[in-house]
Amino acid sequence: MSGQVAAVSRDETYTFSKTNRDSITLLAGLGVEGDVHAGKTIRHQFRMTYEPELPNLRQVHLMHEELFGELALKGFEVSAGQLGENITTRRVDLLGLPTGALLHLGEQAVLEVTGLRNPCSKINDFRKGLLGEVFAMDSVSGEFTFKSGVMAVVRRGGIVRPGDSVQVENPPLPHHPLERV
């Protein structure tokens, strides 16, 4: 599977949306240089209050650009970085990846996918009703569907820019489906 980086974003402060950049630098074991969520231990603002020593499995947030087209059909105008992602991809089935998949970005950076982003209620503060479009229960199976991207850790650092390639390397079998992190 081959795709492309559509946009890169980061922000130094806790804000819902992140600012688009010409490039970001990924730091092995930490995340996006200069981003508020970078660190070895959890940086999620709410979770830091009760689980501050947990390893940071949410160093980098990735979202598929195709979601924006799907949301536009339902009346929601959303663009890269607005839902808090660091890397927006195109032509990569992020939600279908197994846990532990490696994403080779550009010339040298490598991310390991750790799980699904658990969408929070702040999505409705951004656009009223949007949470219901990125988080839904399947009426047949009773399972929840999470569409708001995946989380990853940085295995090998490097600079990532819009237009860079994204190559997927699946882990050895058996594959395990993504769960919320």
UniProtKB/TrEMBL annotation:
Residues 19-169 form the MOSC domain. PROSITE patterns: MOSC (PS51340). SUPFAM superfamilies: PK beta-barrel domain-like (SSF50800). GO terms for molecular function: catalytic activity; molybdenum ion binding; pyridoxal phosphate binding. It holds the Pfam family MOSC. InterPro entries: MoCF_Sase_C (IPR005302), MOSC_domain (IPR052716), Pyrv_Knase-like_insert_dom_sf (IPR011037). PANTHER family: METAL-SULFUR CLUSTER BIOSYNTHESIS PROTEINS YUAD-RELATED, MOSC DOMAIN-CONTAINING PROTEIN. This is MOSC domain-containing protein.
